[in-house]
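ugh ok fine here u go
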Amino acid sequence: MCACRNKIRSLLKVTGLAAGVFSTYSVCRGDEKFYNNVFMPIVRLIPPETAHDLAVLGVKWKLFRPPYQDTDRLRTQLLGLTFSNPIGIAAGFDKHGEAVQGLQLIGFGFVEIGSVTPEPQPGNARPRIFRLNEDKAIVNRYGFNSEGHDVVYDRLRECREQQPPEERVALGINLGKNKLSLDAIADYVQGVKRFGKLADYLVINVSSPNTPGLRTMQSKSTLQTLLTEVLKARASLPANEQRPILLKLAPDLSEEDLREIVDVIRAKACAVDGLIVSNTTIDRPATLRSINAGQLGGLSGPPLKNRSTAMIARVYKLTEGKVPIIGVGGIFTGEDAFEKIEAGASAVQLYTSFIFHGPPVVPKIKRELDRMLQANGYASVQDAVGKGVDKYLS
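structure:
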């Protein structure tokens, strides 16, 4: 009897060890089926913010390395930079610049961190992020939780010094303002001056719905003053620290609002180098099924997809295709990315699909996008930009 029990125990140990080795290998190598059927359902049992923190930690430790070689067709020129592919990670995942190299290893063509505020601040009270599992969507109300300029600057400087320039992924730094700031414009000016040395591009984020009064900075007069001061700040820097500056827009703007913003950025004093379309929405489509649909905050994921694609097309038309656009909102497949590129985006960013499907979603989207570009006769991403703008305007 004892010998039998010992054999069973040994068998269980060997089986458990084998399962552990297989699981570890599948996670690190980005086995898509394993993630979708085993790993991510387990992750969704963990509270959302805890899961997010653990994900950032895992990426920071470079645990995830899905194998994929970017094709020449995916190589993208934007903002005077060359991306190995047009798929970036949106601000909001790596808020404090902890995992830039790990995100590069996963296969992102560019990485945007933040939002970063001048002074450290905790953000809004927890819980502040909610899964809408039935809709594959997320509602968050983080409220610019940030470790502040100094901590993030030192961390990013160390990160960049570890790699020669030719091996570094293109880095965007998304700038925010402190919740209790008495001079919001000064907060953004400070960010431009602080991070010009480290960033490849900078983002002025005045479109988060989770900081009181922030979206009012998209109004014409305030935006004119903000962009004028931000661009003056950039011009005051040494030439090798003057980085492209992009403006991130909310998806809830009216047609009149959009026209006013485009009028503002046409003026030389306010001429930003690009736009990010779009941030999360405060709208709640009637199609949402999750019990968390009523939570306050910004909604991201598939419910935002068509709205953001249509907005990209409208902005592309209004700017006559002269202002580069990075498209964000509900990209889960290569087809989703392709639609945004045909609508007018020169590159795209992921967030919610990465949260729901993990690292394998990145090579999956790149493979699918590459096939769609080829099938539609495009030799490069640039060839496809804006080619289908009219069909996405409705």
